[in-house]
Design a protein that fits this description.
It is built from 4 helices and 17 strands. With 268 residues, the protein is of the alpha+beta class.
Length: 268
C-alpha cells in the first residue's frame, strides 16, 4: 500500500519518534503521479479465509499500471517455481474489500487487484504466469488486510468479476521511468532488538536533495519497501529481512537532517 509520510523539522529521541510514527498521519496532498484508474475485468478467483468466509479476487488490468521490467523465460521460470518475485517486481494495486452477494444469496467479500495490461496479455502465452499472478495477488490481499487465504482456489469460468469494479488511486506509468537514471539513496536497516527475533525494523534513508515530505511516496508490503519522490532523483526498492506488518508501518521525514525514518513492526 502507499503510505503517508509525516514531516518533523527536527530529530526526536527514538521513543518519541516511535510513538509519533504509529499514530497515523494527515491525508497527503494530491500527487500528479497518482490517478484514479478504472480497471477492465480479467478473471475471478474464488477462495476463502481460515474462518471459511468466502472471498473473491477480481484480477483486472489497466493500461496505466506500470509494467514490470522485462524478464527472460528462464528467470521467469525460476521465479514461478519458487514463487519469488524479489527479482521480478510485479506492480499491482489492491483495492479495499467490498461486500457482495454470491449466486446463492450469501454474503461475501470481493477485492479488486489491478495489474498492467501488458502482464495480463502474457497470462496465456507464458507457462505458469497466471498461477504466479494469482499467488502474488493472494499475498498482496493477505498483507494489506491481515488475512490468511486458502491456496485451494477456483478460477471462475462464467464470471470475470464479482460486484462492481471500483476505481482506485494508482501510481501510473509516468512514475516508473528510466530507473537507471535515478540514484539509490544511502540507507540503513537495523533490527530492534539487534539480537533474536526483532520487534521492529528501523529503516533510515538519506535524501539530501529533498526539502520536504510532500513529494515522498512510499509503497510498503510485507516484504518490500519502495521509495520514489516527485523530483525523480531517487528510487529505492528495499527487501526486508523479515516479514513486517505493512498496515502498522509509519514514516517521518526530518527537514533538518533530510533523513526519512521508517518504523516497521515485525510480524510474530
Amino acid at each position: 500500500w502507499t503510505m503517508p509520510v509525516l514531516e518533523d523539522p527536527s530529530p526526536q529521541p527514538f521513543e518519541r519518534t516511535l510513538e509519533g510514527l504509529l499514530q497515523g498521519a494527515a491525508p497527503r496532498e494530491p500527487d500528479a503521479h497518482f490517478q484514479l484508474v478504472r480497471p477492465a475485468p480479467g478473471f475471478c478467483v474464488k477462495t476463502n479465509t481460515e474462518d471459511e468466509a468466502k472471498v473473491f479476487l477480481n484480477i483486472c488490468y489497466a493500461d496505466k499500471i506500470p509494467a514490470p521490467p522485462a524478464i527472460s523465460d528462464v528467470d521467469l521460470t525460476v521465479a514461478i517455481a519458487s514463487f519469488d518475485n524479489s527479482k521480478f517486481r510485479l506492480p499491482m494495486s489492491v483495492g479495499p474489500g467490498h461486500a457482495e452477494v454470491d449466486n446463492k444469496g450469501n454474503g461475501c467479500t470481493a477485492f479488486d487487484v489491478i495489474i498492467a495490461d501488458s502482464v495480463y496479455n502474457q497470462l496465456e502465452s507464458r507457462a505458469g504466469m497466471r498461477e504466479f499472478v494469482v499467488e502474488l495477488a493472494l499475498c498482496a490481499v493477505e498483507s494489506k488486510n491481515s488475512l490468511r487465504l486458502n491456496r485451494e482456489y477456483l478460477i471462475l469460468t462464467k464470471r470475470t468479476h464479482v460486484g462492481t469494479l471500483l476505481e482506485q488511486s494508482c501510481r501510473v506509468r509516468q512514475r516508473i521511468q528510466e530507473l537507471s537514471s535515478l540514484r539509490q539513496p544511502r540507507h540503513s536497516i537495523e533490527a530492534d532488538p539487534p539480537v533474536g527475533t526483532p520487534d521492529f525494523l528501523v529503516v533510515k534513508i538519506e535524501l539530501d536533495d529533498v526539502a520536504s515530505a510532500a513529494g515522498i511516496a512510499l509503497d510498503v508490503d510485507a516484504k518490500h519497501l519502495v521509495l520514489t519522490e516527485s523530483t525523480e532523483r531517487y528510487f529505492l526498492d528495499l527487501p526486508f529481512p523479515c516479514t513486517v506488518d505493512a498496515d502498522e508501518v509509519g514514516a517521518q521525514f526530518h527537514r533538518t537532517t533530510r533523513v526519512l525514518t521508517v518504523m516497521c513492526p515485525c510480524r510474530k
